């Protein structure tokens, strides 16, 4: 993998060279919008401007959605008579007023289900009228499943929306560094702690900096409120967030693409890149991390057992709109697995067509990845591909484990 000689960062992601999320499954923007808002730890209501059945599907997106202490999705529950009689906007107004009366501070109206998209129903004037009368913050958002888009585009749209909704004026902090698009979810093993944030905060403290916000993974309303406070922000793949990046720069922030902290070497590069960006030397601070001291001998022990084994690195199958799994086309964990000594082939869920190979090669070249790859056109076709590759291990989305078991290949799932 090629890197920036000054910072150790991956090559810059230029929109002309590749489209972020181009090697992942496309998605329904309404579903992605709902998935991100369901994950948000904030008092936000989401009004789905459409029929009831679309709302029924959201609880099945992820098991933890079923355990949310308060369900934040509301639906206008449009009926056939509403659509035929042109009463969709009236139902939206009724629903918005009910949500506002329930005491929600903000309501986000999604022009999402395909029915309202097809009939051309416009939530904008209704949202403006109810907001003006009640003082609530109500934003109409255009989403639908009629025209599938990249998951990265949806994540960017939602992130930009959340920053617009929550940002508040702050005194600028030149010593704060925010994290964008990294794996900053709370860890189940650490009692809900955002472990990468803890590590980053410790390294930054040692070089005279502070950790700002961490978005969007695991972000709270406070993260979005305080994001513009930091002067500096870093991301592993700015191509995932063009709209959010433009808004952050409009707030006066400076953004830099840096390596994702995966493995010892690339974690060193991650902090070294932040140090170079802020004119600090992060080498000693990174070397002093207890986790690094434990990781180095563990790495060499692992290499002695793993070196030379064949690993299938699967991308293109995830459908959960998580930016850390979309960054660099899902290849952010590749440096760690290479560091462990695996011989890797990339497996991509795509059809075997000339135009697909051209797109795959363009994206891998843009990322500086020169590994061999194989294609499988659907999940059910993965087992024979794994068997043909004689792989010792497969790094795959969890739902593909049954295919790997059929091929007799053990699996490792992304965190």
Structure in words:
With 415 residues, the protein is of the alpha/beta class. The chain has 18 helices and 15 strands. It has a 5-stranded parallel β-sheet with strand order 13-12-11-14-15. α8 links the parallel β7 and β8.
Summarize the structure.
The protein has 415 residues and is of the alpha/beta class.
List the helices and strands and how they pair.
Elements (H helix, E strand, L loop, with lengths): L25 E2 L1 H11 L5 E4 L3 H7 L14 E3 L4 H6 L2 H14 L4 E6 L2 H6 L4 H11 L2 E6 L6 E2 H16 L6 E8 L14 H12 L3 E6 L5 H6 L3 E6 L6 H9 L3 E4 L5 H15 L5 H5 L2 H17 L3 E6 L7 H4 L7 H6 L3 E7 L4 H13 L6 E4 L5 H8 L3 E3 L5 H6 L4 E2 L3
Parallel strand pairs: 2-3, 2-4, 4-5, 7-8, 7-9, 9-10, 11-12, 11-14, 12-13, 14-15
Antiparallel strand pairs: 1-6
Helix pairs in contact: 1-7, 4-6, 7-10
């Amino acid at each position: 993998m090629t890197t920036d000689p000054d910072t150790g960062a991956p090559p810059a992601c230029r929109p002309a060279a590749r489209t972020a999320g181009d090697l992942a499954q496309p998605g329904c923007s309404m579903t992605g919008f709902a998935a991100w808002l369901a994950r948000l730890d904030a008092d936000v209501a989401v009004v789905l401007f459409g029929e009831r059945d679309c709302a029924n599907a959201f609880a099945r997106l992820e098991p933890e959605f079923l355990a949310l202490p308060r369900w934040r999705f509301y639906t206008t529950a449009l009926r056939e008579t509403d659509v035929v009689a042109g009463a969709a906007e009236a139902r939206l107004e009724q629903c918005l007023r009910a949500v506002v009366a329930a005491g929600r501070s903000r309501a986000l109206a999604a022009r999402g289900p395909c029915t309202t998209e097809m009939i051309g129903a416009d939530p904008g004037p209704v949202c403006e009228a109810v907001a003006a009368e009640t003082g609530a913050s109500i934003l109409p958002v255009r989403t639908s499943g009629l025209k599938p888009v990249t998951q990265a585009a949806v994540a960017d749209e939602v992130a930009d929306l959340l920053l617009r909704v929550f940002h508040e004026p702050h005194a600028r902090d030149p010593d704060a560094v925010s994290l964008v698009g990294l794996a900053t979810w709370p860890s189940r093993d650490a009692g809900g702690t955002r472990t990468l944030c803890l590590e980053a905060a410790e390294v930054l403290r040692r070089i005279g900096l502070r950790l700002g916000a961490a978005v969007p993974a695991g972000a709270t309303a406070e993260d979005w409120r305080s994001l513009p406070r930091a002067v500096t922000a870093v991301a592993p793949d700015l191509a995932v967030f063009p709209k959010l990046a433009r808004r952050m720069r409009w707030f006066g922030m400076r953004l830099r693409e840096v390596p994702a902290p995966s493995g010892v070497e690339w974690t060193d590069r991650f902090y070294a890149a932040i140090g170079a960006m802020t004119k600090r030397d992060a080498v000693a601070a990174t070397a002093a991390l207890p986790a690094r001291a434990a990781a180095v001998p563990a790495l060499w022990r692992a290499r002695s057992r793993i070196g030379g084994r064949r690993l299938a690195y699967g991308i293109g199958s995830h459908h959960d709109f998580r930016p850390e799994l979309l960054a660099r086309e899902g290849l952010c964990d590749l440096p760690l697995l290479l560091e462990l000594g695996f011989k890797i082939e990339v497996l991509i869920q795509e059809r075997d067509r000339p135009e697909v190979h051209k797109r795959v090669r363009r994206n891998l070249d843009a990322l500086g990845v020169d590994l061999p790859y194989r294609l499988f056109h659907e999940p059910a076709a993965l087992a024979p591909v794994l068997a043909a590759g004689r792989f010792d291990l497969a790094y795959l989305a969890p739902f593909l484990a049954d295919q790997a078991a059929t091929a007799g290949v053990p699996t490792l799932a992304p965190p």
